[in-house]
Write a structure and sequence with these properties.
This protein is an alpha/beta fold and 256 residues long. The protein contains 8 helices and 10 strands. Strands 1, 2, 3, 4, 5, 6, 9 and 10 form an 8-stranded parallel β-sheet that branches. Strands 7-8 form a two-stranded antiparallel ribbon.
Length: 256
Amino acid sequence: MVGSRWRLAAELRRWRRAGQRAILWWRDDDARGPSPALERLLALSDRRRTPLTLAVVPDHRLGDLASALALRPWVVAVQHGVDHLNRRQGAVAGEMPSGWTRQEIETALSASWAHLAALPGARRVFVPPWNDVHDALPEALRRGRYEGLSAWGEVRPAGGSFRVDAHIDVMRWRKGPRFRGAARLRAALTKALRRRRLTGLWDAPIGVLTHHLDHDRAAWAFLEAFLAWSSDRPELAWASLGELLAARIELTSTAA
């Protein structure tokens, strides 16, 4: 534990000496409507107005979620799948079987987006369940005029990609969901910072992933402490999904 703290502190010193500030962004998956867990998540976001991207499963019963989002401009709702059903065979889960065509995906996207479109703060960004990206999905999203795709692990400069991914998951999933552990998460953040520093991708955002419906007591405690700690660090800055998308639009306009 001491080792992970020391290594993170050392990495942050390198960023500070370089005059750089790492960009963090927050995505929470699997929202289906109001719940005590969602209220707790939103309360954490409220305390410091930490920007939060809420990946919402499309459903015709989402009307009750509107009131929770209406007065929180720092919370953005995005589309979490077309229905969050696993249609894959085998160990790797996914909504979209490999045999689905781009046209089939476009049809499913359009029908499911209609359930989210009226939510306050909704952005036309797609988060595939289980972070499974079908080969035809990116093109289907572009043809459907989506603003972006958020899955797992891709590292690109701010504004440099259609994708804005998550990189650090607070939870472990093998043998059931549970908190990953503070030392492991500090190590993951250190690794993400170091990768960006060594490759010169200082402004590549680091996505922190949570799952409010699955958090145990330790996960909640860590998240609260991490939000407070990171908000006070001069080497770190929280960005909203809207800011990351705006950077991409600005970069595209400049290139044109």
